[in-house]
Amino acid sequence: MKKLLFIAGFLATLTGTAMASAGSAGAVDTSGLTTSALGIFSVVLFVAAYSLVIFEEQIHLRKSKPVLLAAGIIWICVAITFASMGNTHAAEEAIRHNLLEYAELFLFLLCAMTYINSMDERNVFQALRSWLVSRGFSYRTVFWVTGALSFVISPIADNLTTALLMGAVAMAVGGNDKKFVTLACINIVVAANAGGAFSPFGDITTLMVWQKGMVQFTEFFAIFLPSLVNWLVPALFMNFAVENKQPKPAKEKKEMKLGAKRIIALFLLTITTAVSFHNFLHLPPATGMMLGLGYLGFFSYYLKKKEHRNYDVDDNPLSHQTYHAKPDPFDLFRKVARAEWDTLLFFYGVILCVGGLSQFGYLATVSSFLYHDMGPTTANIIVGVLSAIVDNIPVMFAVLTMLPEMSHNQWLLVTLTAGVGGSLLSIGSAAGVALMGAARGIYTFGAHLKWTPVIALGYVASIVVHLMVNGY
Q: How far apart are the two ends of the chain, measured CA to CA in Å?
């Protein structure tokens, strides 16, 4: 048990991110903090909190709660440690960088979730389910259609948004068939992560690599074939577990409500806006997404007025005119309130936890051990595995902060492994975590873990293909 705890602690320290600015990093000598009592305590606390996340299904404790608690305590340890060294401002400067990283992710996710909730309320996914059933598609066909769409859409939108969209479709088609929904969700997560790996806009990690200038825009497409293999290998295995039967026919045909198509168009416009903000204006994609939320806000006002005008309402109690009841108006803020807050707060806890651990100076030690002692190929493969244990965003940020000397093809390799490695576990990527929230109780950590061996086979196959096609 002690050996297991040591390994878990070591793996946790490998993911520590250097969120602090260069100035604050230089102001405090962290060389001796890796063996400090508070540093070790913080690592143990983080491992304990993440263990509770892993066993969420068994203990029924929301995943955000343990990491929120751990994040606060870890930063208390950081602040006490720095204050004892005579620097009372270094911790504040460091945590502000963590908060900025989280704020961008939070706003991006909040906007995407609001659009998903709006489309759900407008019966977009229910109508799509009716269309798929009417077309006579079997569960196996839907399994491949949602997977293929996830792989194709993810490079344009991003893996998180794509997973939420396709996951909603799979749940609408599958209904109460938990086995199909589980397999479809796993397939969607793997496909979305694989599709997002070969595009700068497919994942936050690829965005960071592109922004850092390590891989140019067109060079990402060199890992298209490895990414495709990463999805197809596990999908072929899971295909045989999907029953080749028809979904249960819907009791009634669902049609999209007023404004549904325009909300879809606004969502696509929002994605285009976010991409343009980053590509042309050099602004964070989250700011473009929030502008897109403004699009929806104004349209919701129009939609509310339009729906009321479509109803013949007479408020005069003395009138004998027949009238319809007022419809439940489309309210943007109700859609915001329906966002998966457990997921959003979970990301806050994770980013603050690993950001706090980085302040104890583990990063330099890990960089030397991985990239100098083990070599870049082995190190980059390990980075992908680590991204499944702790989200790939802090892992990739750690690599970009360490900036190890390696060839261009090795930078492509770490982009691939960090992007698709998160598929090994449901908690390893934003797509998996978000879909766990959307399909709560159906797509779980344990359900995904059962298929980890075949996903790992796809992970290995994608690396082999990359090394054969793009060289060592």
A: 38
